[in-house]
Amino acid sequence: MGETLTGFEYGLNTPATDYDGINKYLRITDIDDVSHKFDISHLTSPKLKDDNYLLANGDILFARTGASVGKSYRYSNIDGKVYYAGFLIKAHIKDHFSTNFIFDTTLLPRYHYFVQVTSMRSGQPGINAKEYQKYIIYTPRRTNKTRLAI
User: Fold this and answer.
1) Angle subtended at Cα 131 by Cα 127 and Cα 136, rounded to the nearest 5 degrees
2) Rounded to two decimals, what is the model's pTM?
3) I want to staple 88 with a disulfide (CB 3.0 to 4.6 A). Which of 11, 43, 46, 103 is the partner?
């Protein structure tokens, strides 16, 4: 996966506060287990607002620790102004790769097996950014004759 990204970044470590009507704070518990969408039923805002932790269209988040390790979410502009919390890792996909394709690979049984094996620890399960980079994604190869939209 590392070759498809411009890099990984860890989330904002600040408490959640009451929702201010504009700034949304996405935590692991705000990602729906089934749909992988932002569950907006209990919106909060971050106490500290640092624009370095704002999501951009197509960013993918990964849960890095605990029972939810491996949970993924793909940001879309429709979700509004969203900051991401500290137990999440943001991956920004390079322009010539499809964020939809990369995200969809996180819904496959193969990915879930990778999470299960990689997250095994003597204590709480977890996967760090370097470990996520090692997840193998098979993408179509571009040739000079064809231009694939992936």
Assistant:
1) 120
2) 0.88
3) 11
